[in-house]
Design a protein that fits this description.
five-stranded mixed barrel; single chain; 511 residues; 17 helices; 11% strand; disordered N terminus; alpha+beta; 9 strands; two-stranded antiparallel ribbon
């Protein structure tokens, strides 16, 4: 639960960064507020900071601890506010084609992510535009990012070249149905103009090697048993975030069961890997050396997987946790979460607007605040092995309810209970999949020993989400009301937990 010791300047800075990034910079970029109005709003916390600083200099107040803390909180809040505005302003929401969109015939650029297979065998990827081409051999410079759909005959070649490859694609531009002013490009033909760097090619080679070992439909004569392993697609999704081989029906069932977060690489998946690293290295190297070795492994793992916002959050939390183990930072998860948020928004502001980024930070924040408070209120009412995950699920659900209602329009509370079953099963499945991969490197015959158990586990998980997906969700037509209700509930949970802890401490002091 959030105690007074946790109300530190880092949280104040993160709060200011969030307001500046999501509120003020968005208003400025959308044209709802001019630069003068933005500067006027910035004067409010700065003026408060000046006032508190002046009061703190008077002899009557100079030793007032609360006033001194208020000065510090005001200072870091103002700094976070300015940082959030600057990071939000740095995000370019516009794409410059250089020529009228109706005259575009081809585009050129660099792949920013690994191409993903979609329905019909086609591929999809985000491209960093470098040039556009019109009729009459017209070629102009362009900038921005664009989602490109490639034909089926180019999908395999794109996956082999991977992220960082420079391409030329002919096709047509069309406006996105999801957002006005946003465009998509449907390629009819594609040419590789420049391969990726050597490091990126090595990374892509490692990914494709793992895909061929897990993919149940890949044609590999030395691992023919993979063709009857239904769990391979799920293993790729959980270990590498690659959903190309994942059954679309399974993905839909997870979504309808309120457990789609299990398929998105995040802290849960990284925690499994970190736990295995600690188990294997802690006794041999000691806590600090094992933490440093784990940090190197985690960084390499995230490099292979790719820049996923939720996974990057988990990686930052792990690295900051290593610094806490080494004594450079306090061992306070909420402070480390706030620090990771400020760092990620500053370094990669574009990721701050992704749904997975917002859900990842809000979910963990809900677990650390409302989840721990619920644990205090419900302590002794059920076994700890059930109480802790249930409170964590409830805390995450409350914290993410507003965002979920805004983007998806429906809430699925059944996911709170379903997650209690699926998370342990998923953990066992991931460990088993990694064991199968390790055995496969030794001999494909050895990996077949684990395949039946993984297939059975896959079937149990499939049946679980199938049953849970039949429970209807709650229509959330008013995200504002959902957000207000979740905030009120969270406030009362934290308030009553604080009251209980205060009364308990008073009784202990009296005794």
């Amino acid at each position: 639960m959030v105690s007074r010791s946790k109300l530190n300047p880092v949280l104040s800075a993160a709060f200011g960064t969030a307001i500046g990034f999501y509120c003020l910079s968005t208003l400025y970029r959308s044209g709802h507020i001019a630069i003068n109005g933005l500067l006027g709003l910035m004067l409010v916390p700065v003026s408060a900071l000046c006032l508190f600083r002046v009061l703190a200099s008077f002899p009557l107040y100079c030793k007032n601890r609360k006033l001194q803390l208020t000065v510090v909180y005001s200072a870091v809040f103002s700094a976070g506010l300015a940082l959030g505005i600057g990071a939000g302003a740095a995000v370019s929401a516009t794409t410059s084609f250089g020529i009228p969109v109706q005259n575009m015939r081809a585009i050129g650029g660099v792949l920013l992510e690994d191409p993903r297979l979609i329905s019909g065998g086609r591929a999809m990827a985000v491209l960093s535009l470098r040039e556009t081409y019109g009729s009459g051999a017209l070629r102009v410079s362009a900038k921005g990012e664009m989602t490109v759909f490639f034909p089926e005959e180019n999908a395999g070649r794109l996956r082999e070249f991977g992220r960082g490859t420079r391409i030329f694609a002919e096709g047509r531009l069309r406006e996105s149905s999801a957002a006005a002013g946003q465009y998509l490009f449907s390629a009819e033909s594609m040419h590789i103009t420049e391969p990726a760097s050597a490091l990126e090619r090595f990374r892509t080679g490692v990914r494709m090697s793992l895909v061929r070992r897990f993919d149940p439909v890949s044609a590999r004569s030395d691992v023919s048993a993979r063709s009857d392993a239904p769990w391979g697609g799920l293993a790729l999704a959980l270990l590498l975030g690659i959903r190309d081989s994942l059954d679309t029906d399974i993905a839909s069932l997870y979504r309808d069961a309120g457990c789609s977060y299990i398929l998105a690489l995040s802290g849960m998946h990284l925690a499994v890997l970190a736990s295995l690293i600690a188990l294997l290295l802690k006794k041999t190297l000691g806590l600090k050396a094992a933490a440093l070795a784990g940090a190197v492994i985690i960084i390499l793992y995230c490099f292979i997987v790719g820049p996923l916002p939720s996974l990057n959050r988990a990686m930052l939390m792990y690295l900051l946790g290593v610094l806490a183990i080494l004594g450079a930072l306090p061992r306070d998860a909420l402070s480390l979460l706030a620090m990771a948020f400020v760092m990620q928004v500053t370094v990669a502001p574009q990721s701050g607007y992704s749904i997975s980024f917002m859900l990842s930070y809000l979910a963990l924040g809900g677990i650390l605040i409302a989840g721990e408070a619920l644990g205090v209120l419900c302590r002794g009412k059920m076994p700890p092995c059930l109480l802790q995950p249930l409170c964590a699920s409830l805390g995450a659900f409350l914290a993410t309810a507003g965002i979920t209602a805004f983007f998806f329009g429906v809430l699925r509370p059944v996911g709170i209970l379903t997650g209690l079953i699926l998370v342990p099963l998923t953990t066992v499945f991931m460990i088993g999949s990694m064991a199968a991969l390790a055995l496969d490197f030794i001999s494909p015959l050895l990996s077949r020993l684990i395949s039946p158990a993984l297939s059975l586990l896959y079937m149990v998980m499939e049946k679980t989400v199938t049953v849970a997906s039949r429970v209807p969700g709650i229509n959330a037509s008013s995200p504002v009301m959902v957000l207000a209700l979740s905030l009120v509930l969270s406030f009362f949970i934290v308030y009553f937990a604080y009251r209980r802890m205060t009364a308990k401490n008073q009784l202990l002091s009296f005794g």
